[in-house]
Amino acid sequence: MKEPSAVADPPAVVDVAMPLPELNRDMEAALLQSEEGADVTFEVGGESFAAHRCVLAARSSVFRAELFGAMKESTAGGGKARVDGVEARAYRALLHFIFTDAVPELDGKDQETSSMAQHLLVAADRYNLERLKLICEDKLCKRIDVSSAVTLALAEQHRCPSLKKACMDFLYSPGNLKAVEATDGFEHLATSCPVILRELIAKLVAL
Amino acid sequence: MKEPSAVADPPAVVDVAMPLPELNRDMEAALLQSEEGADVTFEVGGESFAAHRCVLAARSSVFRAELFGAMKESTAGGGKARVDGVEARAYRALLHFIFTDAVPELDGKDQETSSMAQHLLVAADRYNLERLKLICEDKLCKRIDVSSAVTLALAEQHRCPSLKKACMDFLYSPGNLKAVEATDGFEHLATSCPVILRELIAKLVAL
């Protein structure tokens, strides 16, 4: 046995193995998926989605105004809230984002993913989820091609300046414009956002 | 104006400035702090804490069993749940962790922070919050000193093997043991965990 010393020896370092943060996992598995304690149900495109109004309200000012305001009475006691104008798959992705901050539905690079990004952008704008809207905008900015006249109409209607710029940059090339002009999407763009055609022409004659 | 080409030109890259994830911020500010939609109130050490039972249940199996089981009726309709054996400041930190996964209360390096880590470890064990318990254990492992007899008793009572090892390693040095043996905490340890003294002696005679 060593002779006792008056000064405390420095302790050895003991490492504690630390699990990763679990908030997002718990919010998804134990709240959204389990539906335990859910107190509001939405009917979207023939599907039902149960959720927790306090979480929806904490994440979206639009949900807050609806669920603790106009729709408070009609959705209390199990009343369903019908949502029109949003696809069920986009609504599912929207709820997943609200509970977890993640959008795995946008991980792909195919046309299906672009379509999801378009629908989700519209839903994000409707529920004032600015970060989700920017995630969709960023995704679509990286997928500009000849089918992007529809994307341009979306960018204009939902105030997405970066996405509008990406589409316009693409169309300023006459080769691209010629290809896009032949698509159905361009007809839609011309009808829904005629002001965009004016902008395009002004830019093209200045080239 | 350039001659149109049949092949679409590659689009220019447009970057979208992306905000950081906001789930933790929203869970703290718009849910826990705002208390909007809160449906349960705890009375702890003379203070009241409002919270959302669905979030508590999603994060802690003990809260789930209590709030959707034994205490469901008594806490419905505004009934308060009294919590004994936990300090108010530790309960506040516990709720903050549940809603955000973060423990800013443990950022310091002073004695006050160690005391908080001890109280929070007890509360984390009580509510089966394993990750919070490990965070407290890790914090305490880095603060082993002559006052750590109390910490050793905690480690033994709440099954924290890393913390117990860190304390024991410290005490195996006779200089340290002599200093710790003179503290009130050692009296407490000897009374509450006599088996630890047996372990210590066995180890010391083998040195």
TrEMBL record, chains A, B:
The annotated pathway is: Protein modification; protein ubiquitination
The BTB domain extends over 38-107
Q: Where is the signal peptide?
A: none
Q: Quote any Pfam family the record assigns.
A: BACK_BPM_SPOP
InterPro entries per UniProt = BACK_BPM_SPOP, BPM1-6, BTB/POZ_dom, SKP1/BTB/POZ_sf
Where does this protein have coiled-coil stretches? none
PANTHER family this protein is in? BTB/POZ AND MATH DOMAIN-CONTAINING PROTEIN 1, OS10G0429651 PROTEIN
What is the name of this protein?
Answer: BTB domain-containing protein
UniProt GO BP: protein ubiquitination
User: Taxonomically, which superkingdom?
Assistant: Eukaryota
Similarity remark: Belongs to the Tdpoz family.
Q: What is the lineage of its organism?
A: Eukaryota, Viridiplantae, Streptophyta, Embryophyta, Tracheophyta
